[in-house]
């Protein structure tokens, strides 16, 4: 007797070699052992600003980026290496042959953790940043 399970299929998984989906959906499968999600082969490219406007890319214009895909809680996570990201805005394009000419475009901002004389603002406040700031700043505490 088989075990019936329902699972969510994401752009990073495939239901079978002949069926690939890029939109979340629920499928029901029957099997004697739980199915493990298959990680679709992903390619990541770094582009100079602003990067391509769509997914029609010429890979010779981008720089291949090494990633470490990690399966976690039924999802696929991508880990980027420090060597591939520079301080400032990094434009990354993620593509997969199984996504039918769709892609994911990411803007990753890397900021230096340098906050004056020390990360704790020399005991006079705390380092902080937000999306509109280019770097961390010290926010002084009253008193």
TrEMBL record:
Ranges of compositional bias, category Polar residues: 1-12
Region (Disordered): 1-37
Alphabetic keyword roster: Receptor
Positions with biased composition (Low complexity): 13-37
Protein name: Delta and Notch-like epidermal growth factor-related receptor
Organism the protein comes from: Lygus hesperus (Western plant bug)
Upper lineage: Eukaryota, Metazoa, Ecdysozoa, Arthropoda, Hexapoda
Gene name of this polypeptide: Dner
